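== Item description ==
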Amino acid sequence: MPSLFESENIQHSYFSMSRQWSEYYSWMVAGVDLSLAGNGGGPECAGYRSSQRKWVESVVMFSLGLLLTAWSWTFIKKKVINKNSPIMTTSPTGWRQVWLVAFCVIFGIQSGYKLSSRQMVYILSPCHMVTALQVVILASPNTVYTKTIFRVHLGLLNGALLAILFPVTDTYTAPFEFEMYWIQHGLMLLLPVFLARQGEPFTPEPIKQIHFALLSYAVFFLYHIVILQPVAIYTGINLDFILCPAPSDPFAGPNYIFHACWNQAVIIFALTRLYTVMLNYVKPLNMEVESEKSNIIEDHNKYQ
């Protein structure tokens, strides 16, 4: 049986194509270390789930994701988007521009690491995509659609939280790459608190509503099934452990994907509720300014 991988650890069957495409493909996956159990991928990881199981799990998760998306979006469009003015009057602050530049630099540095190590395929990892989404949020005008994206993205920070709690950094060897890992994920979790200080449209979902959290959950799994899984199957790279479980996964086994469905639901709903509680205690800067003005006027009138 011919080897599945050539000298550059790239699947042989995908190199029967033209030399030009092979060169492009090389900088995407050639640097991935397939010897790392579960982290890199490889033939054993790619065969961890049978084709039949992949089809069944994909159909179930895709159907569930579409149903949750349709149900939650119907409520959001009716109760939030249609009941708010599309353009809000507050303008971006200077500090918001600073955060925007910082996140652009972080995303650029991470892209540079992936290109230099020929692992560009990892830029599709959820944390990098959420970082890109946060760049969009910071750069977008203050509209009701920005509010919607902001609320949905709170649940998608589950990856950043898990990266902090269970770090996987054994492949980070480039200068400052290890430190950038912690900076990126830390700032991802802190950004909602900063944005809440800006006031509208950066407000959390009411504690008694779950529709934005449900949409976050649906987007999370649809991204894994529609984007990550096909790329992972094609390349043999275990993107976000969609092909086989992490070595430290307590639910490792043939049903680990279904276990991920319920434990990620718990994490996403708990995280969005936590942000709702925290951000409701964050007083927007414009309210503080108005409060200070009122106090000054009261003091002035008091001594007249």
